[in-house]
Every structure is written in C-alpha cells, then in structure tokens.
Amino acid sequence: MTKIVQRAGELAARYGGDEFVVLLPETNEQEALEVARRLEHLIWSLELPHIDTPHGISTISIGIASLVPSKHDTSENLVRQADRSLYLAKKARA
Fold first, then answer.
1. Is the backbone of residue 8 left (phi > 0), alpha (psi -120 to 50) or beta?
2. Predicted confidence (pLDDT) per residue in 59-80, tens digit
C-alpha cells in the first residue's frame, strides 16, 4: 500500500472481511479519484488468482466519499456516504 498511501496522515486499513478503507485527509474528490485509479491499476496488475470471479483474478470495487468538516457533518455521515458509494460501485461491476 505504500504506492497508494504516500503522505503523512494517510491510512489504509482493513474495514471488514473483504473491505478496506483508505483515509486521505486534505484530499479533494479529484485527487481521491486519482488515488482510486492507481489502487485499481495496482490490484489488477497483481493478477491474484480468484477462481470465483469472471476474470479468474481478484478485482476491486471502489467507492469514494468526501466531506469538508463542519459542525453539521459527522464521521458517521462520511461512513454512510462511503458505504453507499461502495454499494453502487459493486452493483455497477456485477
């Protein structure tokens, strides 16, 4: 993940069974999209075998969520936004 998480304060971590989160503080949506594209390219280039997929290799679905902190926004709102975005990405890939 060092190719993806490069700046101080950024973090990549397992979020669930097969879900991960990449936190990118002080990153706008366009920059987050660029990171997502690099991550997608990295995963595809590894060609990790996965017999239960149509391509026969592990793939990735990415949802992006972004927010400018305010007193009305909470971390829960950001998680909900990210969850929805990931759900839509998974649905689009199916």
1. beta
2. 899 999 988 888 888 888 888 9
